[in-house]
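Hi Y.,

Following your request, here is the sequence exactly as I used it, all 111 residues.
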Amino acid sequence: MKKTSDAQFLDKRRRFVRTWNLVGTALLAALAALTAWLFTASPSLVNPPQVAAEIARGALPQSTLELMAGLLPVVVLMLLGVTALVVMVGFAVVATERRYLRIIEDLQTRG
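Below is the corresponding structure, written out as tokens. Let me know if you'd prefer a different format.
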């Protein structure tokens, strides 16, 4: 028979799988809405061609350029942090898969 911790683990994974489609879809919709809002409300944050055009015609204030230059390292560091988090999530996913494989092997050797 399965260990209690294995049964609890599998129940938890079933609940996660059941709710992920709704949660994942909601997160993607929120991200799309944020992107659309940024393009309309503050295009200089998300539209590089517009920023380049404003710089070329001298329409971008110096204070905005200084702010963008100051925030660039922060944004790059945040991007690197998010990338590191994605890699860590990958390690967690692999650990979960290893546990699944161990449960399957246990069931195969008993059955």
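The mean pLDDT is 92.

Thanks again,
Q.
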